[in-house]
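User: Quick one: structure for sequence A, then sequence B.

Assistant: Sequence A:
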Amino acid sequence: MGERSHSSCAAFSLVEAMVVVIIAGILAGAAAPLIGSQGALRERAGAAEVSAYLQTARAFAMATGEAHGVRIGRLEGEVAIVRISEGAVVAMSDLFGEEHAAMRFDSVLPGVEIVRATDGAGVADPVTIWFGHDGGPQVRTNAGVLVESPTRDCEVEFASGLIVRVRAVSGAIE
């Protein structure tokens, strides 16, 4: 009897290959919403960060009795807490006298974009949202000179449409 030689080659059957493709499709479909929601999470984090800066400036204004504000440079992507010192607008100092650095969105939250920021008079970019000693918002010039009480809410809008507001009457931040 002659020996038959069968060469043995390892290979996947068509069914096995289809199962792998289906599983890969399911995993990709499950991951896609997570990747898309990452941008929304960053936008919410950016709004929370701007809100925290506004709340900090408001708290410092009420605690010190001096006007404090948040400068928002939409084009620069910067947010910084400022105050008035000897008639000039300066960056807020920390407890050790060091200048409080501005937050840059492109380095902290890449992809987050502020598309509009307005103060209580409707002035836009760059804008400083000021708070007085009572915690209420104020309208001031770029040099920090008090002009008037706000006639409208201050707003910071992100690319997704998310808006952080400072209410004109109460100074409430939402």
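Sequence B:
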Amino acid sequence: MKEQAEKLKQLIAMGSKYFHQTGEESLCRKPAPEKWSKKEILGHLIDSAINNLQRFTEIQFAPKPYQIQSYRQVELVKANNYQSASARDLTILWQAVNRRIQQVILMQTELTLAFPIILGNGDSADLAFLIRDYVDHLDHHLLQIFNPLYPTDPRLPAPKLLA
């Protein structure tokens, strides 16, 4: 899992640099009225980080297999009104929660990484899968934020920022 922690560290650095260098107007621009702005995607990443930090820590003491509880992503973005929030404040929060997740990842052992989980669709997995999935999810959404043309062709596989 050290590779996942290092990848997360790199994604935090890349995202932080982008958010600090990008103007508020650009972050607030919506590609379509029903689509999220880059700032709202950042808000979604904050919600994802908060929910996954809770999962990564609760699984340490919860009955096994750990049942993944889904959360209402669209409603959370709307309820938190990320579009009107300060990009600086959102960036600081996003960085802080992800740095904590990075530390939690580094604390895992072979035993804890094998803790069984039940995903929302009923499939079985383990904590290691959940951690990899979180980092891949972050990679995917940062790519959307960085590239205004993404995805250029929906038939192509989604590229990753970091292999």
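The chain has seven helices and three strands. Residues 150-156 have pLDDT under 50 and may be disordered.

User: Thanks, that's what I needed.
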